[in-house]
Amino acid sequence: MRLKRIIPLVMVAMLLLSNIPFADATATINNNYITWDEAKIRLVQDIVYDDNSFLYIRLNEGIYKIKKDFNRNFISLSEEEENLIEEKVKNNYYEDMVLHSDLQVDEDKIIAEDTYLYYDGIKLLSIENHIEKSKQYNENSSNNEKDIAHRIYFYELSDRRKLYSIKTYLCSYIPPPYTPFCYDYVIVDGEEVTKINVDDNFILHNVIENDDQTVWFYGNTYYGRYTTESTLHLIDNNYNIQSINDKLHVKDINILSRGSDYLIISAFGKPLWETDLKNKENEGFYSINTNGELNKRNEQIKTVKQVFLASNNQIYCISEDNESIINLTINKEIKVNQNEEKTSYEKAKQKWNIINEENNTDSVIREDKDSLIWYLKDGRIYYKENEKSNIFLNGLNVLMNIVKNIYIDKDGGKWFIALAGISYLPPNGDYAENMNGYMTGIKLSDNENIYIDEEKRIWYFGDDIKYKYIYDDAVVADETQYIRDYEKILHEYSEIDNEGFFIYQKENENHQYEVRVLKINRQGNISFSDFIFDQFIESYFAREGVLYLEVEDGLIKIHNGKIYEMRNEGMISSNMSYKFIDDNTIMFRSYHNDYKIITAHIPSFGDIVDKFKYSDQKILFNGMEIPAYEVDGKVAICIEDLVYYGYKSDWSNTERVTRVYFSPQNAKAVDGLIRNEKNLSGNIYYSDVDIYFEGQKVPDYSMNGYSLVPIDTFSQFGEVKKGEIIEINIVNGDAE
Fold first, then answer.
1. What is the end-to-end Cα distance of the chain in Å, rounded?
2. pLDDT band at 602 (very low <50, low <70, confident <90, very high)
3. What's the pTM?
4. Cα–Cα dist 322/46, whole Å
């Protein structure tokens, strides 16, 4: 989220008809009733470096150093010292990268023939199983089968040996990076070619060759889209492979240090989804040699946060709450906030943590013709039958892994929009079909801009608005004229009451942003509304039937045809994420540095937010005295009083709008008398009512059925003279 300038809470009218010119959304109301609270604390981010005497720690305030024996507190560094440490950290990072760089081979020399893969005349690999897997991926697809593809990298080992890493793409109709793939690893030593029997879902990141020519494989093993293991393998001189994860029965292994014939590692237990319970017994720190012999160190795992093996052979880590450094070897801890009050931060963090929303967007819930409820959870497809939830995975499982949306057409067919493309479950069908091969003219990677109506039209909102029926060519829709010269805004798919929203913007010559909100309904009808803002809209989303626009310093809410801004340039910045505590409260927190939480609360309608009182100030409105009030340090008049001064007032309960305008008929009845039937003092209430004077929206303060408008507002309609007597003179049409 990138967030710009502060403007107080703004409420402006939203245009409801697509053929009306732009609404001016920059007029502000002095209705600054959002309350902002800040809670912050110093936290540890990383242990970055060490020398003979000190550990160097990155706090949210910069890099500090601390004596390794913890006998002195944190010491700040000069800018020169900090730059020097940053340079050393950078150099160490590159030294700890792969021992042998991976290089891509000449693709022209890759040949797949029959059931074998050749490179430069070397018979590298049997691909018979990969061909069978690819057929399975295409089995339930309506498309013609496409060939598998290969990409090969190699590592230079000692004694002229080469390690080849072979990535095989299995189904080309699923676009990258979601194309299903598998990995194979082959060592070529002269004429001898040996396949390393590692899982095909293991992705190699680091290759470490030892003095005795054994090799460490370090990388990630993927189990579906959601679960990975940091995995360590040992390859002996006969190319036998040993999984250190399996040997220890642990989920993740991290390499802390390496020597010529050993590693120092940390090991963490099995994940909870495994049939075995999480194994704590083998968690800890180990030294492992190139024979696979393990020696457990005495330190006990206390955290899954960063651990650091220092040059004194002692292990340090960061506490779970990021408020301490712990020396695990001598079991000693030092806090970074020993003398600081953190109550407000703890309360804010507790409130932040109880909110389970990953993103503040509406859930996708659909009901089909058979009254089955279909919905998404963690990117997977579920359907509820007889109150029992079932996961749907039949056909093209790869498309099911990160599904973003579901549509149901009028015949009952289900359309699944995934990061990997589009699949379709026919009415009463059992298997989803891969539709990607038919999506000519539609950009599948732009899945947030796809909408499928009940007539089975696939709509795409990009630089053009296009639609297509599944077997037909894409057509540029007439509605494309609505977005000419506009650019689409980054977003998560946004839907309210089964209507999809797609928002575009452009900058005008006044450096304002003309924002066009398009909506499409289930019948495929498109309409739009327009706004002008003085800030760039970064992205948008829908939550609880409300559209939210993200700007540089907060959020803008569009609800019931009105706009509300929750922005604060002094507190909110582009590196902060946010969560909704409720409809009126949002918390913002630093995205990378968990050290500051900002809470913004907007009152509910009807809440008391201020006071007003009757004023002795004499005001003449077009020469006639009118009652005066004081509110928020300003002199104001009651806008409804103008019905006694030649104006008419119309109230729309549907729009929540009062419109006041000059009426020649009412002007005939003006008698110059002051009529004041309102209280002389009272409360100002937070309100969603908008006031329009002569067709323009004006700032107002709601006083229990009436509205006060500051006198300075009327200078745009005529003349306001200030003195002992304030004169407001507005030129209106002649009374008939």
1. 57
2. confident
3. 0.75
4. 9
